[in-house]
Amino acid sequence: MSRKRMLLIIPAFFVVVSTTGFNSCTKNDTAAPVPADPLAGLNLPATAFSYAVQPLPAFFAAPVVSNQDNNPAGNPVTDWGATLGRVLFYDKVLSINNTIACASCHVQALGFSDTARLSRGFNGGLTGRNSMSLINARYYANGSFFWDERAATLEIQTLTPVQDHTEMGMNLDTLVNRLKTKSHYPVLFEKAFGTAAISSDRIAAALAQFVRSIVSYRSRFDAGRSQIIPPQNPVQTPYPNFTAEENLGKQLFFGALTACATCHTAETFTAPGDRNNGLDNPAVDLGVGGVVNNPARAGNFKSHSLKSIALTAPYMHDGRFKTLEEVVEHYNSGVKPHPNLAPQLRNPDGTPKRLNLTAAEKAALVAFLKTLTDTALSTDEKFSNPFK
Q1: For residue 294, what are the contacts with CB-CB under 8 A and spacing of at least 6?
Q2: What pLDDT score does 273 carry?
Q3: pLDDT tens digits, one per residue of 279-291
Q4: Is 348 exposed, middle or buried (0-12, 13-18, 19+ CB in 10 A)?
Q5: Structure pTM?
Q6: Most exposed residue of 39, 84, 99, 256, measured as fewest CB within 10 angstroms of its CB?
Q7: Residues 346-362: pLDDT tens digits?
Q8: Of 247, 227, 212, 30, which is closest to residue 136 (Cα–Cα)?
């Protein structure tokens, strides 16, 4: 073989390594060869799981719940749309170095949250706040997301971590080009949206559909609530599947003394808007106030759903509390006198409330919170990792 021919072969070898071995996405990238079954690498049923219509209990149809629904007319949950969202949610190609997926910080078995106070991003950096559970994201009437509610819609929220320099570090054009090289994505985009076109707007829409489908309705609380038929009062009536301690905790949770249910309302345990719950004075993290540049909302944060709360430790925006017992004790005796403190946590003279709960009452509140655990949701295949 001549020296001239060797020089021609060696550069060609390095071109192959750089485009396939490192999964680079450039203007010269071409779609991957389509295998006989483009979905062969995924554990997906031939007929999509039902995400659009789930067997919700009858009480979900009541206005107190249905009026919380932020599912937009322009992006309703569909079976194949949420299926595509599920695949994207678990795919590490959404991070720049293929190491982090949405599911890395929102783990199904952990109530779609993280055990770490602050989650680690693609390059080992720490997020600014604790990973919030995604359960019942559909039931925030104002539709705003993140602890500081800086995302006006779930569609906006879904792509923010993807582009964040600490979390996933991805450029959206690069992401679109990457997905085009995966044989399963054109097929899934066509099933979800009618054509195989891949765009950042469609990625956001599919992810939002999947997240909105993560609804909790199979906890022991839900089973007990379903047995309370009007004119029975669901707050005052003991649930037949609860222990005496759990029923006491339910009574305390929904009662005027603790006012827990004013920020975690109805059967979804969500509420729109932001509140200051007296964690610090002065506020260490400005929260919503920092986003809207309003001192009157400094230290305010979103009130997220409490469903499966026993699985989502640590607690608060900074993960400062390791246990539910610590959370209950904060509201019992530890609320700080911040000027923006929520009215529910104030006495008439403006000072923080001290609940003075007994040890038995605090234990009852924790026991009730544990009835909100939805073990079916934490193991349901349609919300699990679809990659083989």
Answers
A1: 288
A2: 86
A3: 999 999 999 999 9
A4: exposed
A5: 0.90
A6: 256
A7: 999 999 999 999 999 99
A8: 212
Main-chain dihedrals φ then ψ at residue 114, nearest 5 degrees: -135, 145
Give the C-alpha separation, 95 to 82, whole Å.
20
As given in the structure block, the two tokens for residue 297 are: 């909302």
pLDDT tens string 11-31: 333 333 333 333 333 334 455
Give 42's strand partners: 387
CA 201/CA 230 separation, integer angstroms: 44
* Pairwise CA distance, residues 377 & 87, whole Å: 17
Identify the helix (H) or strand (E) that includes residue 179: helix 172-180
Please give the pLDDT value at position 17: 32
Residues of the chain with pLDDT under 50: 1-29
- Helix 200-212 vs helix 172-180: crossing angle, to nearest 10: 80
Domains of the chain: 51-216+377-383 (1.10.760.10), 220-376 (1.10.760.10)
DSSP state, residue 47: S
